[in-house]
Amino acid sequence: MTVSAHSPAPGITVVTVAAPPVNALTAQGWFTLAEAVTNAGRDPETHVVVLRAEGRGFNAGVDIKEIQRDPGHTALIGANEGCAAAFSAVYDCAVPVIAAVQGFCLGGGVGLVGNADVVVASEDATFGLPEVDRGALGAATHLARLVPQHLMRALYYTAETISAKQLHHHGSVYAVVPREELDATALALARRIAAKDPRVIRAAKQAINGIDVQPVHRSYRFEQGFTFQLNLAGVSGTARQQFLDGGEKP
């Protein structure tokens, strides 16, 4: 797995995740991503961050195989702490974060996107939380930032996905474009933001977070508590193994 950062234009830092085959991240992968986003925001030359991924999908969540291989709970704790760190890094980044999403965006991917400032997506992008099917809970906090409350509940309970076009209808996806235009669209938007006075943009990010009605950090950690409960009850391990045995793919 690699997380890289580069600056394609003044004021813009692009953070790219590449974790074949489906961009499911290990515990360390989430921490590495968190560090990359945080460092980008701390760079005074960065006015805006674009978060993107290589491959057929944006993110498939946590690496279930890593958790299942661990006879104890170290990997699970690491994954949960890593996810919390990465989601927080996006939300707390000192500058706006634009998420550029292609293909599937599942589990932890929704956590990243839900905490981003702006979302652009390809026409084939789908978003969903398969947590219920995996014996876990989490990221309802972030899905609730993308869709209305009752739709969030329906998607959560059924583990169904929603398309980028549908999210655009709800106003949470800024633009839906052909996949080949995704990066260019994200960069065009980034350039418009980067052209503003960075002192004002950084202050605006703090101000908008300060008036947010949802305490995203506390809310997500509350959800995670039920994941630990389900693991202690033996429910989660069984669900994860069924998923791995079934060979289901995003």
UniProtKB/TrEMBL annotation:
Belongs to the enoyl-CoA hydratase/isomerase family. It comes from the Bacteria. CDD domains: crotonase-like. This is Enoyl-CoA hydratase family protein. InterPro entries: ClpP/crotonase-like_dom_sf (IPR029045), Ech1-like (IPR045002), Enoyl-CoA_hydra/iso (IPR001753).
